[in-house]
Each structure stands twice: as structure tokens, then as C-alpha cells.
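Quick one, C-alpha cells below:
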């Protein structure tokens, strides 16, 4: 990939790197995620249980993309399918998810819901036959650039992604994106050790965007209608996951052995520190497809 390209070689994490993290076994994830197996930051309100906070997040992202009224919704990096299921429950006619993890796609196929479909493909290889009315992408963008790229190369990879989304989305369509991003607080020793652990042990071949990278990458294709940084919501989500893992430790060891739960415990502790100290942020965007030359009118493009 050249620094300026918008359609160069894919610069994100490979299928092998994604499987390394996500295919440790669905039984292990079931032990500590909520029953919908949503694996991204929730959206909390006072008194929430994890499942309610995850559902609020899914609804915020579905609403932002106008997904409940979509004939066809695309979820890029669909995990085990929680957003697909919720979108269809709320009125979307057909929801397509793409993931690099075969085990995630297997679980979605096992639900036997004809309105939901999962394909094992990266976005760079994805070639849909028809356009979509709404696009969502939750917790996958973190994998779309590798560690070691220059900022220009990262932005070029992200621009390539948004160029495809622009093509796949019908004119006037909306997209929502949730991603972890680099924070503005410089690393201290602990922050650096935690970051190195997360990148080396948990997410090989991945790096985080800076918030400004996202704005540079959407230019000319999408405009940001809303953005929230909810990093405190990720502190709470990770704390909850950690408590759940600890509470069912013996089950976790029974399905995944001694090593995996130990590594995930260390990783969740590291994530809590990264978000609470401001080394990382959690961004949620509502994006509107830009239609060059077309005046936007209230109510006209939703
Ligand atoms: C942290 S999980 C989030 C899953 C889900 N969106 C959720 O919130 O529960 C990241 C997802 O991104 C997918 N992913 C990573 N790189 C991808 C790529 N290049 N194309 C499509 N999906 C990708 C992974 O397979 C996984 O499903």
C-alpha cells in the first residue's frame, strides 16, 4: 500500500491474527460476556445490569444508522451477531454481518433466523450484490490498521474502508461506527507495559486510530453528525467482564484451560487502566453519507 492510496493492499489485521483472539472457543466467551455475547463497550445508565447496558448501546447504534427501518442493514465486524438480531427484532428486514472469525459465523448460522446472515470475509474482499440502507460497525475498526504503519498509511487504509462504505450505502444513508481510539494522556511506565501486553498478547497486527484519523478518513464521503467519547463506559464494561470472569473462574478453566483465563484477566485489568487513565478513548460516531452537490434539507435524508 502506498501512503496516498485509497484502494491499496489491505493494511489491517490478517484472518490468522483475528482468529488468534476471537477463536479461543465460544464456550469461554459465554462464561463472561452477557447472553447476547456482545463484545464491545456498553452504554450505561444508573442501575443497569450488563445486558441492559449492551442493549442500550446496540439501540443507539441502530437508531443512529436508521437501522430499524432498513430493508438491508450491514454490520461490519459482526461478532456473534448481537446487533444483527437486535436490528431485525426492531424492524430491519434483512441484516448481513461480516466477520473474519469462522466460529462467530457458525454461531450466527446456528440461530436459524432467515433474516440474519453472516459471511466470513474481511471488508476489503467483501463484494455485496446490492446496496444497503444502513451500515454499522462496532469494535472492529481497531483492527483496520497494523502497528508500525505511518499515520499517512493508517489514514489511507481507513479512507479505503470509508470509500467502500460510501459505495455500499444508498444515497442519503447513515452509518454508525464505534471504536477505541488513542487517548491524549501520554503513557507512564504502567501505561506502556499495559499497551504492549494488549498489542503483543491479545491483538497482534492491530493498532488504534487517533480521533483525528477518523475525521481525516471520512472527508468527502461522510460527515460526522455526532461523536461521543464514552471511555468511562468502557471502564465499567471491563470491570463487569472481569467480575463475571472471576465469579465463574472454575468454569472458564474447565472450557479453556489454565492459561487463557489468566491471560484474559491480565488483559481486562490492563484495559481498565488504559481507559480510566485516558490513554485510550471510546468513540461512537453517527455519520451521514455525503452527497456532493445535493443540498441537505431537514427530514430529507433520513
Ligand atoms: C471486538 S469484536 C466486535 C464484535 C461485535 N461488533 C460486538 O460488538 O460484539 C471485532 C469484530 O471485528 C471483526 N473483524 C476484524 N477485522 C475485520 C475485517 N477486516 N473485516 C471484517 N470484520 C473484521 C472480527 O472478526 C470481530 O467479529
Amino acid at each position: 500500500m502506498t501512503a496516498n492510496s485509497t484502494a491499496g493492499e489491505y493494511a489491517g489485521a490478517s484472518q490468522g491474527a483475528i482468529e488468534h483472539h476471537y477463536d479461543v472457543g465460544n464456550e469461554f466467551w459465554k462464561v463472561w460476556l452477557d447472553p447476547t455475547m456482545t463484545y464491545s463497550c456498553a452504554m450505561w445508565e444508573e442501575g443497569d445490569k450488563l445486558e441492559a447496558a449492551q442493549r442500550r448501546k446496540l439501540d443507539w447504534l441502530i437508531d443512529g444508522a436508521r437501522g430499524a427501518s432498513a430493508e438491508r442493514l450491514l454490520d461490519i465486524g459482526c461478532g456473534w451477531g448481537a446487533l444483527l438480531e437486535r436490528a431485525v427484532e426492531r424492524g430491519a428486514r434483512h441484516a448481513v454481518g461480516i466477520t473474519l472469525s469462522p466460529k462467530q459465523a457458525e454461531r450466527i448460522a446456528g440461530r436459524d433466523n432467515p433474516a440474519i446472515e453472516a459471511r466470513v470475509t474481511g471488508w476489503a474482499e467483501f463484494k455485496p450484490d446490492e446496496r444497503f440502507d444502513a451500515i454499522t460497525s462496532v469494535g472492529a475498526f481497531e483492527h483496520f490498521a497494523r502497528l508500525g504503519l505511518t499515520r499517512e498509511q493508517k489514514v489511507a487504509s481507513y479512507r479505503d474502508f470509508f470509500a467502500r462504505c460510501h459505495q455500499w450505502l444508498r444515497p442519503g444513508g447513515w452509518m454508525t461506527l464505534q471504536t477505541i481510539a488513542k487517548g491524549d494522556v501520554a503513557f507512564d511506565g504502567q501505561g506502556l507495559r499495559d499497551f504492549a501486553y494488549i498489542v503483543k498478547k491479545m491483538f497482534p497486527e492491530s493498532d488504534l486510530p487517533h480521533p483525528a484519523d477518523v475525521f481525516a478518513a471520512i472527508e468527502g464521503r461522510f460527515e460526522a453528525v455526532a461523536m461521543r467519547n464514552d471511555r468511562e463506559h468502557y471502564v465499567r464494561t471491563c470491570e463487569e467482564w472481569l467480575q463475571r470472569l472471576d465469579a465463574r473462574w472454575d468454569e472458564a478453566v474447565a472450557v479453556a484451560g489454565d492459561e487463557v483465563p489468566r491471560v484474559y484477566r491480565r488483559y481486562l485489568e490492563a484495559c481498565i487502566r488504559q481507559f480510566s487513565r485516558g490513554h485510550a478513548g471510546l468513540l461512537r460516531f453517527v455519520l451521514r453519507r455525503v452527497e456532493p452537490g445535493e443540498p441537505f434539507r431537514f427530514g430529507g435524508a433520513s
